[in-house]
Amino acid sequence: MGNVVEQEGSGVPKPVLIIAIALGVLLAVGVAGVGVYGWYGEHQMREEAEAAAAARRTGPLAAAPIPAPEARSAECASVMSALPAQLSVGGTPVPRRALAEPAPAATVAWGDAEHDPITVRCGIDAPAELTPTSQLMDVSGVSWLEINQGGDSSWLAVDRPVYVALSAPADTGTGPLQDLSKLIGAKLPKQPVFP
What is the pTM of this model? Predict the structure, then answer.
């Protein structure tokens, strides 16, 4: 058979056998490479997400400016001066966190490397979500409107002379809301939601 050399007893030409073995090795190397690349990419994405979370949890917090026409009122001053230096989240004390400049008036934040930021703002505008048919929740005598945004919840005290908002990750629990309700109840007089 001219140039075709057969391997003894197999009936498969030697060049075909070499190509088949080489293709098998290349396929194995390719699959291993994709696996390593996939693991590396996943590992890299996880590290980047952890670094972003750490950056979000440390250093001065950039608080987005929002309309707060009553932020410099005597009522807001009364509430803000009574806020604690530490906030209890799940039984763990979480310290106050500095705000990035320019810091909005009547805004306080808590957070650390283990806890996403929790903020309180006072004197903000009435939210568009507040209507006569809104579902309100009473906590320690204070009427709250809940607004969910992404993974965060904002609670707005709507039955006081100024609107006070508490924003926190959805998994924070109700401890900060209960504590703030007691403080607001002691500092600000109750009034009708729609005077």
Answer: 0.71
